[in-house]
Amino acid sequence: MTDNLPRSVDDLRQERVLDLAGRQLTKVPESLGHSALLEELDLDRNQLVSLPANIGQMINLKSLSLYSNRLAALPESVWRLTNLRILNLAENRFTFIPEGIGNLTELRMLDLGHNELAFLPEAIGNLQNLSFLYASNNRLASLPGALWGLDGLLYLNITDNQLPSLHDAIGNLARLIELRLYNNQLSSLPDSLGRLSKLRELHLMNNKLISLPETLGGLTNLRKLILQGNQLTSLPESLGDLANLTDLDLRNNRLEALPDSLGKLAHLRHLDLRANKLVNLPCGLRELTNLEKLDLRWNKTLILPDWVRLLEDRGCTVFV
């Protein structure tokens, strides 16, 4: 239905911002395509199954948000909206994205999450101004080679897919600050990951990792390293080089020992070691003066050292 439009669409042609979110719309009138001055259009949380064919006439549109509708395809004219900076297609029914998306070279943010995508188009590599890319909760088992040429990316989210591996070229994403890859099928990580020297958060929980590359120590700006729910049996000594690390989550792995180098993590505040197979703890952990929480529960064979009391005396919460 279109009855929930705020007023006659003809009266909206002079608007620059139009918020039609959450109005239970099932269609948008063709006349909206004549809103040539419109810069921001929000159609989130409706029941749209299609868009008007002339939507590409909104040549000044900079932000188009279509989150949580019932769209499985877009009109070809969408790919003529070359001034778009923001395109949100999340939580729809898309099974593919046309190569025409490569025309939207001004995009800064692209959200393709929560769809049914089995692949991403190679043309995504044309989006050289892209800073934020969301592709979570799809069916991706591989990624296009062109993706690794997006060296302006600051944030990359490909969680909840079916990725078995990462290409070495991920190391080209030199400006990346946050990388989210949890709930995939990753069994290893490329050495090139260690080149992401600006990375602050790395989320890898619930994969199939059995080891980590020694090069991980190159992530000297990393604050959060989340490795919960993998199959790690050991950790590289280079983990101690993560000088700015504040949060290290290793719960639900298969670790029997920890490297002594963890004692060098002077900024570490939270260390989660739950549900591993630890027998001993490295003495260096007692030197972690900023540690606020140490969780050791469900390590059935762990021999608790006396110095754990020193941590507690400093105000660190220790769960055993």
Mean pLDDT: 95
Instruction: Please trace the helix and strand order, writing H or E for each element.
Output: EEEEEEEEEEEEEHE
| Number of discrete domains | 1
Approximately what portion of the residues adopt beta-strand conformation?
5-15%
Describe the structure.
With 320 residues, the protein is mostly beta strands. It is built from one helix and 14 strands. The protein has one helix at 308-313, and strands at residues 17-19, 40-42, 63-65, 86-88, 109-111, 132-134, 155-157, 178-180, 201-203, 224-226, 247-249, 270-272, 293-295, 317-319. Strand 13 (293-295), helix 1 and strand 14 (317-319) form a beta-alpha-beta unit. The chain is elongated and about 75 Å long.
List keywords for this structure.
320 residues; mainly beta; Leucine-rich repeat, LRR (right-handed beta-alpha superhelix); 14-stranded parallel sheet; 14 strands; 2% helix; elongated
